[in-house]
Task: structure prediction
Amino acid sequence: MEKKTKKKMVLKKYRNIILFIFILIIISVFLFFSKNSGTIRKELKDFAVEDTSLVTKIFMVNKENKKVLLEREKYGNWTVNKKFFARKDAIDILLKTIKRIEAKYPVSKSAKATVLRLLSSEHTKVEIYQKENLIKTYFVGSMTANQNGTYMLLENSSMPFVTHIRGFNGYLSSRYFIDEGLWRSQKLFNYNFKDIDNVEFTNLKDKNKSFKISNLGDNKFSLKDSENKNVENFNILKLKKYLSFFKKINFEGIANKMNQEKKDSILNSKEIYKISVTNKNSEKKILRIFLRENIGKILDDEGKPYKYDLDRLFANLNNNNEILIIQYYVFDNLFMDLEYFKK
Result:
């Protein structure tokens, strides 16, 4: 009896091993043919850009011909429509999307005509560049009914796909937005001092306090007064420190509710300060700064309202039609005078 029992146990053990091996073979064959026998060519579903660190430009336009151009500067900042710094958080999300996007599955034959019609009537065209080379173009459509996928179509293809990002439940079309104002960062200046070619500070209240700093390279700098004469004896450490202040200088807000008549009145008045910054790419930003009336009616020690705001100023960048609100707290380090640099 013991021999028969042992024999049965051995046979059962071998049957289990054989069955396990057989199952492994079936799974391996299935995976092999699933991977290699697909009828959809890779170029029809290849939406992702593997190395987004090489992406230098992203252009998007919708059916209403609204456009946005995002460009990576030489010094790492991204700009919006060649006018403003772009929000870092929004750029980071878009680049991660471009890198990780995948085709989830092709649209079914029965739904294909409908989806193509939807993509034709409502889409955002996305062009991705490395340097000046266009490397990827696709059309972003609406979300799927369950909101966990996004209809997309590669250029020169007639096969739409439902796309997604693994591990993310939601749709992707909201990441490809066009509104310039939503892309715009609140940064006005964001330079490392070595990336600055020159800074010119003009004090309209007292022109003798004005100056111009130029970065000559090889750790050499020049300092000129309001009459463009060289200042020979200056403190180079203070000069470098001043240039370092042009990192992460933000405005507080935009005076959106101000009527045009009020804007024109401010823009046509005389500024109290003017700051001009030119980077090594010869790109210049000019910020005009104006006094702001005492809107909050802050009172002095005698109970009388100050004429002007003690905390905030108005500003205008590159002579556009916007009135920005800035804080003394943020800008005080930029409002130096020539004497600060002298030994």
